[in-house]
User: Fold these one by one.
Assistant:
Number 1:
Amino acid sequence: MTDFAAGAAPPRTAPQENTVWNGKLVRHSAASRVIHWTVALFFFLALFTGMPIWSPIFSWMGNLMGGLHVCRWLHPWVACAFFVATIVMWTHWHADMKMTEADRGWFGPKLIEYLKFSGEDPNVGKYNGGQKLFFWFALLDAILLLLTGIVLWFSTSFGAGLREASILLHDVAFILFGVAIVAHIYLGTAAEPGTFTAMSRGTVSKAWARLHHGKWYREVTGEEKRR
Ligand code: HEM
């Protein structure tokens, strides 16, 4: 445990992840946050350039991006950047995202309690089962989007069957991503107050950590389980 609030001078370097710093728990280093927001930036650029190509209903997004012709040119490039950023995020976070038996057990009555805000599992580590699932889903869906996107980008190089399957799968993949991101943003902001600072300032309050990630809280602070 490292508690720089307890009198010792804080380090000159950026606070280390999984330490106590100025009375808060450091959840995400600056590097983690830059990676996360780079993924998010390219995700939304890919979304805003892709939706107008998908349907004229979203032509207003195309106007924001400079017109449909700009979107058609830009979309594959920002989508590739999104994929690269996702891979960087995967290399950075995958060690923390391994599914354990306890995580699998979380997808039952505990998940219902969590969604109803009626109870929290005190044995949740740094990430709960749902966060880990979202992480792996984001990786797999990004791979699916890339593979089907390449077929659409170089469509004349592929047969009609593969082209049609890719159109369908690309649409299904981005709709699933859209739904997952809406849930992710809701849970990271309005639904769970105190979570957003994890990705803005990198820190969370002790009360937040104790409530949502009890096992991680105890590991970082060294405090014994409260009974
Ligand atoms: C405006 C949009 C977004 C907001 C407000 C947001 C917010 C957050 C917050 C607050 C966390 C930290 C949660 C924690 O430490 O417990 C987080 C984690 C994460 N974010 Fe985002 N995020 C956004 C967009 C995205 C996008 C576009 C992706 C991927 C395509 C993404 C992928 C992740 C992943 C994989 C994690 C770690 C697992 C998790 O906490 O769910 N985020 N995000």
Number 2:
Amino acid sequence: MTSEPLDDLEQRRAELYAQLAGTGDFRPGSVNETWRRCGKPACACAQPGNPGHGPRYLWTRSAGGRTRTRQLAAAELDKARREVAAYKQFVAVSEQIVQVNEAICEARPASAAGPGVQGGPDADEQLGPLIAGLREQMSAEIARLAADAARSLGCGGRDGGRRDRDPRRDAEAGRLDAGAAAGR
Ligand SMILES: [Zn+2]
């Protein structure tokens, strides 16, 4: 698997993601049919060969370490069975996605890695402008806050104060620029 070309792996991953997106409603657990004996000796269910009262349909799943059960109405039985099957499908596709991602991580050379490369080139293309936009907004906001702070400090100490503050504000602005440049 690790010898598979990176392009093929990425193509397979894209297909799996598409498959995952097409999963319908799903829920974990299982749907079971149960029959029970009421315990009355005179009841038909006490006779040998009688399956007991039923069927009752139960949806059972574990949640937070506990097993929870709910009886299903006959009308929702088919729906619940589909949803439980869809969950198994979801888990199977998810496992394949983990495997193909692992193979992609192994196949992708370290030199190809850049900032935000986790999602691969496709995700990067979409996220790139978004991240750049956010970074720009944040830089502008930080610059505005710095200017506000400098202004309010400057107001306090007119002459001497202003001359003391300005170099510090310049240094601050320089650091912000350097930080933004390094982040690119
Ligand atoms: Zn009975």
